[in-house]
Amino acid sequence: METPGLVVHGEAAPFSTALRSLVNNPLYSDVRFVVGQERQEVFAHRCLLACRCNFFQRLLSSEPGPGVPSPVVLSTVPAEAFLAVLEFLYTNSAKLQRHSVTVSFPLSLMGAVHTLPHTPANVERNVHQYRKKYGYLSQLCLEFVVKALDVELVCEALQVAVTFGLGQLQERCVAFIEAHSQETLRTRGFLELSAPALLPLLRSDKLCVDEAELVLAARSWARVGAAVLERPVAEVAAPVVRELRLALLAPAELSALEEQNRREPLIPVEQIVEAWKCHALRRGDAARGTPCRRRRGTLPREHHRFLDLPFK
């Protein structure tokens, strides 16, 4: 029986430093990427990428032809995020920048989904490979994001979480917004949320904001979306506006909202009618559903005593 040889381990730090020096270094580089909307040129090394990542292995499997090979274009991937992933592939560590980390860990999945045919089988296979290969990196990024969350960053992080199905990050973001609702509603990030990202916020009982302020924020959000998408405000608001709890508004507030809604349609007329029914029936069935349930930040109004639904 052969005696196993002695394994000698060198220091990890100098090895990592040496490999880090090759990140985006044209020296000995044999593959180029053009990344992001700014079309930044990034240099890399095929053998390192291929042995560290299945996605790059497939992407770079073909032999380069004679002459200078054409660059690989990844226009949808931010350059800063791409460089962070390269650094991790080269050194097994990465310096996480506060405002770019939210897009770093879904990067490989983004590239795979944009590059491969959009079939359910391909998407499912790449999600599995992403989780297997980048699980550790994504966990590190998640921990970093959670520690760095603030009012300006949280909506960007929530959007990424919803887009890529990162449930744990979504839960953390929603919890943060619930605790800092008024400040978050005033940020540009809130106005740029997609409808699927806004929905879990409007469905929450724990938002620390009054319904009147939430209606104003939803209107501002819909106006921004309407300007960007060149669609009517009511059409943009349609996927989310049903989550507004209009019955929590006092009759005078509801009348003012109804008048404004005539000038600038936002809320379906039937939804306003339902709110008036809650006022009229008071203890009837119409006052026992989500449209009448108070949130954590709901300010008390005289008619709330008829709702008989304290915040839980």
Explain this structure to me?
Residues 104-127 have low confidence and may be disordered. The chain has 312 residues and is mainly alpha-helical. A three-stranded mixed beta sheet has the order 2-1-3. It has helices spanning 12-20, 46-52, 54-59, 79-91, 101-104, 107-115, 120-148, 154-163, 167-179, 181-185, 188-191, 195-202, 211-229, 233-237, 251-263, 269-281, 304-307, and strands at residues 31-35, 40-44, 72-74. The longest helix is centred in the middle third of the chain and has 29 residues, at 120-148. The relative contact order is 0.06. Strand 1 and strand 2 (40-44) form a beta hairpin. It starts with 11 loop residues before the first helix and ends in a 5-residue tail after the last helix. 55% of the residues lie in helices and 4% in strands. It has 17 helices and three strands. InterPro entries: BACK, BTB/POZ_dom, BTBD19, SKP1/BTB/POZ_sf. Residues 29-98 form the BTB domain.
Summary keywords:
BTB/POZ_dom, BTBD19, 3 strands, 312 residues, BACK, 17 helices, three-stranded mixed beta sheet
The first-to-last residue Cα distance is 70 Å
Number of helices: 17
Identify low-pLDDT runs: 104-127
Q: Which range best describes the helical content: under 10%, 10-25%, 25-40%, 40-55%, 55-70% or over 70%?
A: 40-55%
Structural class: mainly alpha
User: Which strand order spans the largest sheet, edge to edge or round the barrel?
Assistant: 2-1-3
H and E string: HEEHHEHHHHHHHHHHHHHH
Q: What portion of the residues fall into strands of 2 or more residues?
A: under 5%
Give the overall pLDDT as a whole number. Answer: 81
Integer-rounded radius of gyration: 26 Å
What is the total tally of β strands? 3
Biggest sheet overview: 3 strands, mixed
